[in-house]
Write a structure and sequence with these properties.
Low-confidence stretches: 297-302
CATH superfamily of the largest domain: Periplasmic binding protein-like II
CATH architecture of the largest domain: 3-Layer(aba) Sandwich
Helix content: 40-55%
Strand content: 15-25%
Number of domains: 3
Number of strands: 14
Shape: elongated
Oligomer: single chain
Largest sheet: 5 strands, mixed
Length: 305
């Protein structure tokens, strides 16, 4: 087997915590992941991982080997990046971090366009609503919703992230009417963890900004899970347009308080200032700004459809 590939597979197995998770990330079977690790152990003459049916952990030799492997793989990637800079052709693996709803319902639909235009680039995309440290986690570029902290990262503004307030007809039939944002304090709200929206929802009306404290029995870190809960009549949902568009069109959900505007949330593309502006990074930034930098794309389509 290719020893460098086996090192890469071993590192992914350590980072993912299991052969099966590494296999999913690398699009290979868990058996093949295990074969790569076994090949390394046979070549080195030491055991790298101790595994049981429930967990795995590095041996002392495995930990030392993993630390060196990380350096080797980083150097290989840096060498490839330098070669790509010299050739001017986008190539290599690009690691991106994306909020879950945006990644599933918007970005993943448009990625084929980018990959078709840049066939030598591969993408490793992580979906997470939590704050991700780009430097510590080796992320090249991230999409981030909400106000930015002074993190020292370079930010490119994209089109604002628009939200809709809605609920299932079954929920509305059993609860008091909602005619003003203040009514939400008496309703069951479905909350998104890791965001400021888990405690407070904002609206704009004739009297200006209205900030409403909200609460509910269900808080989840997935907009998709909240969508399913809302469709089942469990409460009120405040989520991005692209997540609820189909359910609103079908009548499974009904939009609420249309006379009160929901302030759009800032949306940015972030990358570290010390990242080399390689062709792959530049090409993806240009793509993201072109597709998601305005409310509609060059063809007049809603960019997030």
């Amino acid at each position: 087997m290719d020893r460098l590939l086996s090192m890469s597979v071993f590192a992914k197995a350590v980072e993912c915590g299991s052969f099966s998770a590494a296999g999913e990330a690398l699009y290979m079977s868990s058996q093949l992941v295990g074969k790569h690790v076994q090949t390394l152990e046979q070549h080195l003459g030491v055991r790298l991982l101790n595994r049981t049916t429930r967990r795995q952990h590095l041996t002392e030799a495995g930990f030392a080997f993993y630390e060196r492997v990380k350096i080797i793989l980083a150097e290989v990637e840096a060498a490839e990046s330098l070669a790509a800079i010299s050739s001017g052709t986008p190539r290599g693996r690009l690691r991106i971090n994306v909020p879950v709803s945006f990644g599933v319902h918007a970005l993943s639909r448009r990625l084929p366009e980018y990959l078709a235009a840049h066939p030598d680039v591969s993408i490793e995309m992580s979906l997470s609503n939590r704050y991700v440290d780009l430097i510590d986690e080796g992320i090249d570029i991230a999409f981030r919703v909400g106000e930015l902290s002074d993190s020292g990262l370079i930010a490119r503004a994209l089109a604002p992230y628009r939200l809709r307030l809605c609920a299932a007809p079954s929920y509305l039939a059993k609860h008091p009417p909602i005619t003003h944002p203040a009514d939400l304090e008496r309703h069951e709200c479905l909350l998104l963890s890791y965001t400021e929206m888990r405690t407070r929802w904002n609206f704009e009306g004739p009297e200006g900004l209205i900030s409403v404290p909200v609460s509910g029995k269900l808080m989840v870190d997935s907009g998709q899970a909240l969508l399913m809960a809302a469709c089942a009549g469990m409460g009120l949902l405040l989520q991005p347009c692209e997540l609820v568009r189909d359910e609103l069109a079908s009548g499974r959900l009904v939009e609420l308080l249309p006379d009160f505007a929901i302030p759009p949330r800032p949306f940015h593309l972030l990358y570290a200032p010390d990242r080399r502006m390689t062709p792959k990074l530049r090409s993806f930034i240009d793509f993201a700004v072109h597709v998601f930098g305005s409310e509609t794309d060059a063809a007049g389509r809603a960019a997030w459809q």
